[in-house]
Design a protein that fits this description.
Length: 339
């Protein structure tokens, strides 16, 4: 297992996953070690074909380059219940806050800083409680077909990674985690961070994506070569280290639900998107940052599945820290702060 010295996020080569035997076990152990220590891992030679990832970025660019009135033909529905469709700059406010007064004050502060990004969320077409919000096909012919294909290709890769996690956690059944994921409750998100004067990000007058943790089981992230994603350094909280883009790698991270499921053995680490760290990050007098595209894919268990402590993550001297909860119950608890 290699790690880039700059970011300390380990790199795991998934190429030999299908060859079985000891390489499979090693890959599983390396991924789990990274998820325990950092909560983030780069996965190279993963199952999503590179040409599909390239194509996904092309479609994403075509989508975001549409006139605003076309994108607004598939608006994100109001409220927090449905997480699909197009969100325009400033709509989404990420918040970690849940219940205490302080947290709510913090949530309010975050609400006052607009997010300079656009997003488009896609799910399974069979998920009737989260109906997809498609733009009419004639606006961008082929977009819907490609995105649904990409959605399911990502689930194939995510499913293998869930198997690797189960093996690395020493569960007897490699499908232990995967079997709670039919795939219909996942979410594919296209993100476009438009150029913005560096100064507005530096002075906290706007954010690309404020620090947050993801909620679900795992996230697979594809990012372009712009840079700007940063991950909290677990050794010194408050310090963030860059998750420098690696060509064709998936940046995989653990979400809050999997942290809870694993009795905190696996770590859901805070991350954010800020100024690109590259030397060519600014252009012109206003120091405009480069435009950035990224595509996260969130895997979530099915809504009625009960998330109770993974057996290998507890023992006589280590009781389960959390009550069992359904995915839907957990989501509801978190979602009301999002919009
Ligand atoms: O754009 C990125 O690289 C990260 C986005 C992210 O963390 C999220 O959408 O949860
Ligand atoms: Fe995230």
């Amino acid at each position: 297992m290699a790690s880039t010295s700059e970011s300390m996020i380990p790199v795991v080569d998934f190429a030999k996953w299908t060859s079985g035997g000891s390489s499979r076990l090693q890959i599983a152990q390396d991924i789990v070690a990274a998820c325990k220590k950092v909560g983030f891992v780069y996965i190279v030679n993963h199952p999503v074909p590179d040409h599909l990832v390239d194509e996904a970025f092309l479609w994403s660019r075509l989508f975001f380059d549409l006139p605003q009135e076309d994108k607004l033909k598939a608006p994100h529905p109001e409220g927090w219940a449905v997480h699909r469709g197009y969100s325009w700059p400033g709509l989404e406010k990420v918040s970690q806050a849940i219940s205490t007064t302080n947290d709510q004050e913090r949530a309010q502060q975050l609400r006052e800083v607009p997010d300079i990004k656009e997003s488009y969320d896609i799910g399974s077409d069979q998920n009737s409680s989260q109906p997809n919000q498609w733009i009419p096909d004639e606006v961008l012919p082929g977009f819907r077909d490609f995105m649904l294909r990409f959605y399911w290709e990502c689930f194939v890769a995510g499913g293998e990674i869930l198997r690797a996690l189960a093996i690395g956690l020493e569960l007897e059944d490699e499908n232990y985690l995967l079997e709670k994921h039919s795939g219909h409750n996942n979410q594919l998100r296209l993100l476009n961070y438009p150029p913005v004067p560096a100064e507005t990000l530096e002075n906290d007058r706007a954010a690309r994506c404020p620090a947050h943790t993801d909620w679900s089981s795992i996230t697979l992230l594809f990012q372009d070569d712009c840079g700007g994603l940063e991950v909290q350094d677990v050794a010194s909280p408050g310090k963030f280290v860059p998750a420098t883009p690696i060509k064709n790698a998936i940046v995989m991270n653990v979400g809050d639900l999997l942290q809870r499921w694993s009795n905190d053995h696996l770590r859901s680490t805070s991350h954010r998107v800020t100024l690109p760290p590259l030397s060519d990050r600014f252009e012109g007098e206003q120091r405009m940052t480069r435009r950035r595209f990224s595509i996260p894919y969130f895997l979530a268990p099915d809504p009625d599945s009960v998330i109770a402590c993974i057996p290998s993550c507890m023992g006589a001297d280590e009781p389960a820290k959390y009550e069992p909860i359904t995915q839907a119950g957990y989501n509801q608890m978190r979602a009301s702060m999002q919009y």
